[in-house]
Amino acid sequence: MSKILVIAEHLDGKLNPSTARAVSAAVAVKSEAVDVLVLSDKVGPLAAEAAKIEGVSHVLTIARVENAHPLAAILAPQIAKAAAGYSHVLAPSTTFGKDVAPRVAALLGVAQVSDVMSVEGSHAFKRPIYAGNAIINVEADPSHAVVATIRTASWPAANSGNNSAPIEALNVEMNLPTHTRFVELKQGKSDRPDLQSANKVVSGGRGVGSKENFEIIYKLADKIGAAVGASRAAVDAGYVPNELQVGQTGKIIAPELYVAIGISGAIQHLTGIKDAGTIVAINKDAEAPIFEIADIGLVGDLFKLIPELEQAIG
Questions:
Q1: What is the pLDDT of residue 189?
Q2: Full set of structural domains in the chain with CATH
Q3: Percent of the chain with pLDDT over 70
């Protein structure tokens, strides 16, 4: 039977929802056990949070001062050592997971499976290629450990609150690399929902016209309690910071509602919203590709349509 180790992603003392999504994928493998590994300098609250996720068998912790910041060069050797005896090591396919998982795979001497979107068997998976235009079947060698990243947009977050998994501290004795050091973390501060986990997202594109005009996107998002996103064209034009970019080279999201405003719908952008529930498109170009996948489309001037929408919402 397989035994799975899920690497917890966290920031500022809280688990990222991507961890619970990775647990859902692990449960789908139908393994003997699904354990979560928490690496931090202060593991207590994080371990307690992870223990509540349904489907988790055990929570393992490695508490070291070097783990205060998620540096892949520091975390990977510890994860590789903790992975002894596990058939699978899973991490969310986020910036964190894409950074640390390849190092873990290299240390274990295996090829990584990326962006798992469905589980077909204990060592068989489906993943997207060609910007999501094709889905391929991947079979990993059952004689080696599987290291994989989980496409979080394709998996629901496992429920939390009804579980109480035991917590065990691991003592990993090793000399860690010193060539990588943490300098600082710069990130945008916002009271809006997190883009990657929000149920509703309002995105703007080049059609919005300017950084100043993007206020109309923020206003609508706040009106309906949504996160704000953007196309790469809007980011490249300097309308918004790059952490709001949605698409192949940005964030892959799966909100229940996605509103695309002034976005033509390049394939790279559509890749990022393939798993969205309802897609609403507003664009003055009736031939824009975004309308081919939109559930609801409005053709017209966004600066006239959005105020009318806000008025209708009340």
A1: 67
A2: 3-169 (3.40.50.620), 200-313 (3.40.50.1220)
A3: 98
